[in-house]
Amino acid sequence: MKKIALALACLAFSGSAFAWESWGQVYKSYQIPVPIWGDQTTDLEDCSGTSEYLGTAKRAYITWNQVTNTDFSWTIGGWGGPYGGAGDGFNTIRFKEINDVGVLGLTTLNNYQGDRDCDVKMDVNQNWECGPSDPWWNEFDLESVILHEVGHQLGLDHSSNNSAVMWWSIGMSANKRVLHSDDIAGIRGRYPD
Ligand SMILES: [Zn+2]
Prior knowledge:
Helices cover 28% and strands 19% of the residues. It has 4 helices and 7 strands; from the N terminus they run H-E-H-E-E-E-E-E-E-H-H. Helix 2 links the parallel strand 1 (34-38) and strand 2 (74-78). Helix 2 crosses helix 3 (142-154). The model is unreliable at 1-15 (pLDDT under 50).
């Protein structure tokens, strides 16, 4: 009995070191690098043109790609689609109205022929800072929120570490464009190399 108690104590200790959580199945190795299909049809009025907000999105995907010692990576499929309904096999990011108070971005998890298929939607009706400048006191940081949603897209749930990008909320003027060690442990945990 003492040995079991000791083993449990060790588990509890290692569990408290990281707080990330899994969300859904992982992308299978033959899906990786996972192509991202973007939507360039929306006029996101806070950004100066399509190229600016797509550039912001690209930076967020690249930030996840820069993590070493993981088998996971994204690649840009294209910015003009194709994309359609949920579960169509295309992993997308779109800029649309969400119309849900307090929701900045939304990621939906689907399944296409047994494979992970995950889509991000960003709310166009927020006061965004498109970067690379820092957000003002009354702005949300677009890159930080996309970085968070992309963490969901690749298979992470919310972390209970409030310094992590995968923490459930972000305030106005907050800048979280750099992954926390807990986020890095999360992608490595889900996609070990
Ligand atoms: Zn979230």
